[in-house]
Design goal:
This protein has one domain (6-119, 157-179). 76% of the residues lie in helices and 0% in strands. It has helices spanning 6-26, 31-73, 79-118, 122-137, 161-179. The chain is elongated, with a radius of gyration of 17 Å.
Length: 182
């Protein structure tokens, strides 16, 4: 983990905060927000670190897209979530993005468990995880056999992933402030 420059921390915080609010209120993450974040991420990294910064941004964007796009294709993630994580990667680079990704995955899992417990559907949800894994191991789209695994289905349980991404980013920034050398 490295310590992103203050301007990138501020832009990251603004982008994910606005994305979280939009995702909670409207269940969408606006394209204008992710596009602005991408342009600013590339431009500022290029300005601060020259061509190394440009490649730093593109590697972060590419890794995020490589990880999140298959989840979109499997109908487990919205396109806005893919674009938001690509923007996060563009702003912080691939190494920092990996940290944010792991924090987001842990927080998302905890939030999903909390939602399932609240709705008294934990065992059913764990069964869906088994169905998801079985489908993936058989190289089949999990949503093809279980409608609840299709994000587009009204039967699926949905979390505003933009909010979870924001939490992961803020946790990452807090950890960077505490542990990264300055």
């Amino acid at each position: 983990m490295s310590f992103p420059p203050l301007i990138l921390q501020i832009i990251l915080a603004l982008v994910v905060t606005v994305a979280a609010v939009y995702d909670v209120r409207f269940r969408r993450i606006p394209n204008w927000l992710t596009a602005c974040g991408l342009v600013l991420g590339i431009a500022i990294n290029l300005f601060l670190f020259e061509w190394a910064g440009f490649w730093y941004s593109l590697k972060g964007l590419g890794l995020a897209f490589l990880v999140y796009f298959p989840m979109y294709l499997l109908r487990g993630m919205g396109a806005g979530d893919v674009k938001l994580m690509a923007t996060v990667g563009c702003l912080v680079g691939w190494k920092n993005w990996l940290g944010i990704f792991f924090l987001t995955a842990i927080l998302g899992g905890l939030a999903a468990i909390a939602l399932l417990l609240r709705r008294r559907r934990l065992l059913h949800g764990l069964g869906n995880v088994g169905s998801l894994l079985a489908g993936l191991l058989a190289f089949r789209a999990p949503y093809a056999r279980n409608e609840e695994l299709d994000l587009k289905s009204p039967k699926s349980m949905k979390l505003p992933h933009g909010l979870i991404i924001a939490w992961g980013c803020f946790l990452f920034l807090g950890a960077a402030w505490l542990w990264a050398p300055r």
